Amino acid sequence: MGWLLAAGIAVLFFVVMIVSTVRIRLLYRRQGEDDEMSVHVRMWAGLLRFQYRFPQFRLTSEGVDVKEKTKAPLSGKKPAWFETIGLKTLQRVRQDWRILKYRVIGLYDVFYRFLRHVTCERLIWKSHLGTGDAAETGVITGLAWGVKTSLVGMLGSYIDWLVRPRLDVVPHFQERRLETELDCMIRFRIGHAILAILRLLMRMRGKGGEGTWQNTQFKA
Q: CA 3, CA 117: separation in Å to the nearest integer?
């Protein structure tokens, strides 16, 4: 009877995990020359939480400078900018993405199927822009609105919106200013994420270049 009870508990736990909902909140803020970003993950009404803060970074003419995670030393000096993400890094990421697309048959199809089960509970994106020149600020403000509405429109064709996104661009005609805040929260079931991972694994190309079970189709 003991093994039956253990098996029943294991099955119950697996079912609970599959139907459980995960909420992921992304916070991004740019103020001055520095950028901050963090990700918060919640499950089971907050009983299980996880938070990760990305290393502070800033944009430069050479690329993206990343600040070390460690605290400032006892001497009082600020942490140094120790790494620059430049053109070579971006080229390497692009190459890795190409390899992934080659290795996985129908990679975009797997992503699109998963996104259909994603719900955005909150999207707040506010920006303050200014160049010191009224004409330039007006042009940049219009471009910013265009970029934001285009991105939201594109995402809206794949995911569901629980509430209408709140977008705002505030122009500052008499000063140079570049600030933005993004607060986004999405949710999805673990079962849909597991199914997406299984699809990726089953569409991986073998040594012969053909997909493993590539003709297998799943419907969810």
A: 36
What CA–CA distance (Å, rounded) separates 110 from 198?
10
Contact 213, 198 (CB under 8 A): no
Global pTM value: 0.71
Look at the chain and report how many structural domains it folds into.
1
The parent domain of residue 53 ranges over 22-202
DSSP reduced 3-state for 162:
coil
CB half-sphere exposure, 169, CA atoms < 13 A: 17
User: Is 102 within the bounds of a domain?
Assistant: yes
Q: How confident is the model at residue 203 (pLDDT cuts 50, 70, 90)?
A: confident
State CA 216 to chain mean position distance: 29
Tokens representing 209 are 């270049």
**CA angle, 40 then 43 then 117, to 5°:** 90
